[in-house]
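Repro case for the chain-ordering regression, as requested:
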Amino acid sequence: MAGLGPARRRRASRLHPVRLGIFTLLCLLLSGFAGAAAYFFPVVVAGVGQTGQHIVVPPSDSPGVKVTPTPAASPGAPFTVLLLGSDDDSKFNADHVLTQSMILVRVEPATKHVTMLSIPRDLWVPLSTGGSAKIDAAYAYGGPAAAIATVERNFHVHVDEYAWVGLKGLIKLIDQLGGIDVFVTNPVLDDFYPDDIGGGFLYGYKRVAVLPGAQHLDGSHALQYVRSRHNDINGDFGRSARQQQVLIAMKAKASTLNAADLPDIVNALHGEFKTSMGLDRVRSLLSVASAFDLSNVRRIVLYVPAYSSYGQISGQSVILPHWAQILPIVRANFP
Amino acid sequence: MIVRRLAAIMFVPLMVAFGSGVYLYLGTLKSKVVKERAQLPPAAKAKSVLPGTMYVVQDGRLYRLNDGGFTEIGPAGDWSQPTLTPDHTHLIAVLRSAFFSDLYLLDLDGHVLKRLTKNDSRIIDANHWAFYPRVSPDGTTLFFGYDSPKNNGVDLSIWSMPLNGPQYQARRRTDPYYYTGGDVSPIPLAGAGLIFVRHSIDPSTAVHSQIVFQSRPGDWTGKPLTDLADDCSQPALSPDGTQLAMICTGGKQTARLEVAPFNGNALGPARVLLDAGLYASPAWSPDGRALAYFAPAGMAGHFQLWWLALPVAPTPSPAPSPMHSPSAGGEASSIVVPPPLPAAPVPVQVTQGVDLTATSAPAWY
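-- result from build under test --
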């Protein structure tokens, strides 16, 4: 260095234009990446915290039923998801809630076919945690693992994944989707609709009236539509059919979303959603949703009297399953 | 050296700005469905000008559409289902609260003139709903859907009362016991006849809607005008009383907009004007040559107002022989058969960017 003249030192201390360009580009890339990371940060947090929930399901004692979790299936392979919907207000301890909605969904990514089977919440079954009770209590006693094991053992089906959403999460999700369009087939009137969402007395009731016809429902009205059951002549079965209808409407609406919508969706579902599905499965689901076709959706409701009957056990109104009729239809649709 | 440090310091804000720009840019990539928020009708100029004056509802507010512009009328509240008196001098609309709804008489500017029903109670299940007001052609009787009596549940049945009389004079016209939600959408006819929509459940537990004709009070069974499997509802009678527009789903989640000739007690063969959409609440133009209805437009699925000019068809001729009719039990031989339409009508979108209440049929005169 001692031999360098002042002019050469000046040249050396100046950055070469190419290096300067590369340095500038790198800085911009870094800042751009930081901006994108900040944008998708809620998605990453949710992805870590709410998806890929690890659960250990006790081995099934039903013949032919595999133990969950199974080895990772190849991408594009069919899989079965147990959708769970719950009251999650302060009437219950966290994660000890009844599942008001239980829907088995078979997704076939290759053919874009979806089969939905609604399980009545009052179905009287042996629980995986011991004893017999309404099936909606399985989650309350043992969380998602117990809910899955109970469904697997009784329905002789293998459940690959589960997804749980709270009622408030459903409202926020539908609002985030901008509402849904449904054709309400009949007036849904209820004098004893639980008034437990907006705060106040948790055991109060209110009246709801959802009028028939095509309409655009926001989150709270959609919830009234899927939750009301006291005046439906089909009871919980009518409600199950409405839940499937709303699920289809949500899927139709979700197919118009893109990746940039994810942070808002995740914020809407904060604390109201969890799933065992990893990103691969979520991607498969999204691909089915984007190619959504109503004709590719099969809906099954286990109505009385074909698949079940009403009964009374320990003073509770329950639904007694007719397994001889239920299991063949489950086997045919959830291989 | 100082220059380089200064340059580096200047570069930091540039990076921050670029990173923020990326963040904001990603926000602009959100799908329209998430970004699209409905405007209130006065902020959205109608794309087409309809003849006459129409009343519609959005978010519990009553709007008058006239000369292509919307004006909000009426006091604050959760208003819905406006209907005109036959002389077009007054409106009757539903004002809904959390636990009950009542019918009100308003002038055409939305000023409340009279509360027609009183359905509130301090006991939750002693409250009542009143929906679907409609005035008889002679202007003396108010028909509406009302959830009484409450037998093992809440079902709407059709009631009628003198328009200028007290509610205790109301009488029940239909028996919805053990339906699924009950009877709605009354259309009183000249004389004592009544058209309404009955919801019922079949042995396979499927829920159906069916348009029913009741010839007189006390005719509890009525005569179905449409087949159970067609799932027709939301009837709208043309101003001259000879055609009935309706929405039929056939048990699907999409609907058809149909029009069928009506002879006073039976329907002729229905023509499908529109198929496979979420059509709702048809209403006839004052001259009977067009239909307005609601259907979603755009990704958000908000319901917009549309209209459909019905092609002028040659004079209908009497049916040569009894024909196949979708009308269940219809006396088809006395129905005039309209000739085929010359061309498929083309729907015209009237509003854009609003979110009209699709369960409140337009009142149009």
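Ordering looks correct now. Residues 62-71 of chain A have pLDDT under 50 and may be disordered.
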